Known about the structure:
Number of helices: 4
Shape: rod-shaped
Oligomer: single chain
Amino acid sequence: xxxxxxxxxxxxxxxxxxxxxxxxxxxxxxxxxxxxxxxxxxxxxxxxxxxxxxxxxxxxxxxxxxxxxxxxxxxxxxxxxxxxx
Length: 85
């Protein structure tokens, strides 16, 4: 940017700064939401529940399928987001 352009757009600097901060907040929230680690922990807890006899094999299979589906779309989001970066 040239000096004249910077001077003319100086009043917009707080707006640009606020937009950058909002973008960073959204990006951080998305990374946390799509993080696969909580799903992996749930899968480990589910397996332990099965081994402890707290759930049946049918319940285990049903919940495991749901968690694996969720894990897959979280990983897909991460792959897609990494390609854009």
